[in-house]
Amino acid sequence: MKRREDSAAIPETMMRLIKLLAATSAVLSCALATPGAHAQNYPVKPIKLVVPYPPSGIGDTAARDIALNLAQRLGQPVIVENKPGASQMIGAEFVAKSAPDGYTLFLGSLSSLVLNIAAQKNLPYDPFKDFAPVSLAFTTPLYLVVNPSLPVKSVADLIAYARGNPGKLSFGSIGAGSSLHLTAEMFKSMTGTDMVHIPYKGSMPALSDLVGGQIQLVFDVGTSALPLVHGGRLRVLGVTSKTRASGTPDIPPIADTVPGFDASFWFGIVAPAGVPQPIIDKLSTELRAILRQPALREKFRSSGVELTGSTPAEMTAQMKADLPIWQEVQRKAGISPE
Fold this sequence. Notes:
Elements: H1 2-31, H2 35-41, E1 47-51, H3 58-74, E2 78-82, H4 89-96, E3 104-109, H5 110-119, E4 131-140, E5 142-146, H6 155-164, E6 169-173, H7 179-191, E7 195-199, H8 203-212, E8 217-221, H9 222-230, E9 235-239, E10 265-272, H10 277-291, H11 294-301, E11 306-307, H12 312-333
Parallel strand pairs: 1-2, 1-3, 6-7, 6-8
Antiparallel strand pairs: 3-10, 4-10, 4-11, 5-8, 5-9
Helix pairs in contact: 2-10, 3-10, 5-12, 7-12
């Protein structure tokens, strides 16, 4: 009788084992599904593009145009979410800690992905480990503008005046270690001039004091500085790109006077580390197509903004190439992490 019970138990045990193996196989099939399959269906819901700047600035404006075009190409909304503050660290940390599914992207920049490494003591993210580069998006030079009362009309004039008046000129920036600050520090180092840094909480207060004569010069983006130049309230001496910016061909590059000077600043799209590579590649391909559109390129060119586009590998290479250059500028300027 016992043998019959054992015999009856065998089929039941086998059935349980078969069901367990089937369930395990199903789970593994889902887990091991090719990333390409995910990319083929991606996206199936709205995408969030986090911008670490307040609304209406050049970063926000460009991001919204890119988001609109990306939504049209992908067939899903791309929603811009502004998360400004703390030298762009609030937005960057938020994205770094987001799910690596391709539905949260970040508008990174030279500042957030390179300069912050040396400028911030407790950086809450690792730009090289916590993000997956997607594509460079655009570059913008800065413009060297001065108060019209300053007796200089060229970069050469400014250098001569600064050397003759060491420590008497002051320049404003949006904060210690910022791109605007470090550009001025690079200029000081390469020209052997001594000027005093005055940090502000934003571009507008710095430009306001420049117009008012409290400071003498500022390096700033074209969208902020050039309207004041066109209105006769400031004088522009040069542009920080190594060649003339296509949108402002009448403004000479500082490099004409200071050989080797080059301080153009890039912005790019990154995702949290761990997003499947086929999704990264799909986003990169779509972004490059968008950024090549003649109408969109022309829209931003008048402000000195050049739409670029790149592969993920090219963006990674850009980050790695820029890091030692700007770390050296920071070292020479004596800038310590804050």
